[in-house]
Specification:
- Keywords: Cytoplasm.
- Pfam families: Usp.
- InterPro entries: Rossmann-like_a/b/a_fold, Universal_stress_UspA, UspA.
- Its main location: cytoplasm.
- Belongs to the universal stress protein A family.
- By secondary structure, the protein is an alpha/beta fold.
- The chain has one domain: Rossmann fold (3-Layer(aba) Sandwich), CATH 3.40.50.
- It contains five helices and seven strands; from the N terminus they run βαβββαβαβααβ.
- The protein has a five-stranded parallel beta sheet, with helices on both faces. It has a two-stranded antiparallel ribbon with strand order 3-4.
- Strand 1, helix 1 and strand 2 form a beta-alpha-beta unit.
- The longest helix has 25 residues.
- It is globular, with a radius of gyration of 15 Å.
- The protein starts with a strand and ends with a strand.
- About 7% of the residues have low confidence.
Length: 141
């Protein structure tokens, strides 16, 4: 049924729960597994036109890569060699664009852990992707 399954990895427990579900499905359907993390470089703090980006972006990328490395180890331990991609930009846009461009059949994401106050102003990545993607999505608690 599914040939390419993407898992959004953000380092949260729910993203690793999503990974577990995706691994089970990838085995069941003999599907390729894509692990994707997005460094949010679109909303970095600015101060009078001076970006904090150089060191901050490197720190964010290092952290995201560690999360992807952990997810890769989990997948390999389960007998799957995943495709791994570290993207940068606005996570909602990247997680809507990347699956279309790569022929992904299913997106697996963890349920948001954002509190309701923050969700009103920032928005949930999971919710955005579920509302703006025409690809099947599995949301895992």
């Amino acid at each position: 049924m599914y040939k390419k399954i993407l898992v959004a990895i953000d380092g949260s427990q729910s993203s690793y729960n999503a990974l577990d579900a995706a691994i089970d499905m990838a085995k069941q359907f003999k599907a390729a597994l894509y692990l994707v993390s997005v460094v949010n470089t679109a909303n970095l703090p600015m101060n009078v036109g001076v970006s904090y980006a150089p060191g901050l972006v490197n720190d964010l990328k290092t952290s995201a890569q560690k999360d992807l490395d952990k997810a890769t180890d989990i997948a390999k331990h389960a007998g799957i060699s995943p495709y791994v991609q570290l993207l940068d930009g606005e996570p909602r846009e990247q997680l809507t664009r990347f699956p279309k461009e790569n022929g992904i059949d299913l997106i697996v994401m963890g349920k948001t852990g954002t509190n309701s106050f923050t969700r009103v102003f920032v928005g949930s990545v999971t919710r955005y992707v579920s509302e703006h993607s025409d690809i099947n999505i599995l949301i895992v608690a």
